[in-house]
Amino acid sequence: MSIITISREMGSSGQIIARRLADKLGYTLIDGEAILRVSQSYGLSADAVQKADEKPPAFVESLDTSLEIDLHRIEQIILEYALKGNVIIYGRGGQDLLSGVRSVFRTRIIAPFAVRVERWAEREWLDPDLARILVRKSDQQRAGFIKYYFDRDWNDPYHYDLIVNTAKMSIDMAVDIIARSSHEKNLVEHRDSCKKRLNDLILCKKLEIAIMQEGCLDGYHIQMSIDNGVVTLDGHIHNEDERSAIHKIIAAKFPKVQVNDKLKVFAYHINPKEG
Question: Which class does domain 199-265 fall in?
Answer without folding.
Answer: alpha beta
